[in-house]
Every structure is written in structure tokens, then in C-alpha cells.
Amino acid sequence: METQNMNLKKPMLFTLEKFHISEDYGFILPDPLMPLLSCHFLKGHREQYLAHLLLSCITMGYVWQEGEKHIPKVLPRNLALPFVEISRTLGLPPILVHSDLVLTNWKKKDPNGPLEIRNLDTIVSFPGGESLKGFVLVTLLVEKAAVPGIKALVKAINAILQSNEDVLLQALQQLRTSIDEMAKALRQMHDYVDPAIFYAVIRIFLSGWQDNPAIPDGLIYEGVSEEPLKYSGGSAAQSTVFHAFDELLGVCHSKESTTFLHRMREYMPPSHRAFLEEIHSAPSLKEFILSSRSCLLHEAYNQCVKALAELRSHHINIVAKYLLTGAAKAKDGGLDCLTGPPQALAEKGTGGTVVFSFLKSVRNTTLEGIID
């Protein structure tokens, strides 16, 4: 018994290993480079989307950290491989997309508080401070304002399938109200985003390597492809909401605009693309309205189209302010910390389009959908 008690009281030996101190390197961390990141430990789509957000932001920071000077031609293997792996898992391209920057990149300060900008914060940030936070969170609130419209869209399609004009009228009225709320949310951009900071600081981190003169050959993803790959930067055209409302209302854009918009669908999560395809294959709302004798349905439909065109006009005004006014302020030298605003996309959006002609074309073709 005494021997057992002595064994129990035997002190533990003092070792370096207990304190993560190396026998060979002392306090120095041996081989500090991490092993290649793997997606196998991620549990479920929420963690996968968060991983895509983090890797895409690291990638944009790496590529654009020195502005348009000394842009790297190669994305290092230890970043390229896990980024491409998680992108293939999610069905997304390996670049920052709208679903990363906006749909995934938010949190509540007070978990029990409201979904309002004063109670929101971003998960990951680029340079740009409060203006970057405002840009992301106002766009998030536009998406949130669209939720009743998305529900109304489903309600409208089901009403057509059941030939229920009363329910369809309610759905169209709810859709119009939702689009108006989206415009109201979008106007908050003026309060939270400084044009000069957006143009000279934020914008370049949203830029891609397709249709971008600053990086015309694209980017080599080391360990993935020996040839450069080209991907468009972030764009409002990657928001599923506008595509969904266009599909429901039967809005037909020009061939050039449609080509770009459909290419932007490749930058959406696959389930969102499938949602758009389902709307497209549903019975035509416009044809149902045209075959109806209801003046109320005609007017409700037209009000939705007008509201959508008005929302696009607000977007044009904001783009004008943040590109033209922002460029002027940035060039005046008001931001001393900057080496100079980026020049490669001066006339283009971060998605690579000639921005004003594209936005005005989309707005005008929306108005053409009005039923006489």
C-alpha cells in the first residue's frame, strides 16, 4: 500500500515539450510555414462559404497590395490550391464574388439586435475603413429588402399555375413595395461611403483579371494551371435578385448586355443559378397578364417594371457619384496616404463592363417591358 502511495505522489518531470519549446530551436518556431490547407475538415456549406470568403479576400489582398504597380503574375501554390479546391466544391470561381463580399461577410454586433446598419459589422475587411464597411453593409441591406419580393415572386408563379388573379395581384403589389424598399436601402450609400475613398482605395480590391488592362494576361494559379486564368471582378450583376426579377417580369435586355449578365451567373452559387432557371422555365407572367382582362393586373405589373427601372436609375446615379465625383476628388490629392488612384478601370466597372453604357442600356430595356 505504501509503495502505491509513493508512486501516486511521484512528480512529473520538467520538460521543454510541455511548453512547446524545441530541443533544437529553443523558443524559435521550427518550420513556421503551415502545411497546405485542406477543405476536408470543413463541416457543411456554411463553413465552406466562410472559407471561400477568407481565401478570396487573401487573394485580392495579395494581388492588389501594391495597387497597379508590381502586380504578381502567379498566385502561390499554398493559396491557389486550397482556394481552387473550395471553389470547385462550392461551384464558384476562385475569385472574390458578390456572395463572398456581401452575402457571407456580415455579423450582428448584438446577436439579439435588429438587422440594421448600426448593429452590423463585416467579418473581413480590406483597406477603406468605415467606407468599405458601409459599402458592404448597405449592399447587404438592399439584399435584405428584396426578401419580401423574392417571396412575392414565388407567390406570383404559384398564382399563375393556379390561375388565381386575386393572389397574383397581391403578389405583384408586394413585389413593387419590396423593390421600392430596395431603392430606399440603396440611398443609404450616400451616408456611409466616401466617394474618394471608394474610387481610390476600395475599388481596386474588387477588380478581377479579365477585361482588366492592368493585368491583361490573367493570373497563374500555381499548381492548378500553367496558363494564366481569367476571372471577372465583383459586380452588382452577380446579385441573383435583379436576375430573378428580370426573369419574372420578362424583361429582355440587349444581346450584349444579356451575354454579360448570363456570364455573371457563373459567379453565383449553383443553387441560386438553379433558382433562376426554375423561374425561366415557369409559365410566363407577362403572357398571363396580356391574356387577362384585368386592368388592375396590367397596372400592378407596370408598376413593378417602373419600380425596377427606377431602382436601376438610382444605381446609375450612385455609380456616377462614386466614379466621376470620386475620381475628381481622388485626383485633387485629398487623400495623402495614397500613391494615386488606379487608372486601368477608369472607364469600366469592376466586373469589366463599360459601366455607364451598360447600366443605361439595362435601365432602358427594363422600361421597354411596360405593357401599353
Automatic annotation (TrEMBL):
Biological processes, Gene Ontology terms: immune system process; L-tryptophan catabolic process to kynurenine
Keywords for the protein's UniProt record, in alphabetical order: Dioxygenase, Heme, Immunity, Iron, Metal-binding, Oxidoreductase, Tryptophan catabolism
Pfam families reported for this sequence: IDO
InterPro entries, per the entry: Indolamine_dOase, Trp/Indoleamine_2_3_dOase-like
UniProt superkingdom: Eukaryota
One cellular-component annotation, GO: cytoplasm
GO molecular function annotations of the record: heme binding; metal ion binding; oxidoreductase activity, acting on single donors with incorporation of molecular oxygen, incorporation of two atoms of oxygen
Protein family: Belongs to the indoleamine 2,3-dioxygenase family.
UniProt-recorded name of the protein: Indoleamine 2,3-dioxygenase 2
Species of origin: Monodelphis domestica
Lineage of the organism: Eukaryota, Metazoa, Chordata, Craniata, Vertebrata
Gene name as annotated: IDO2
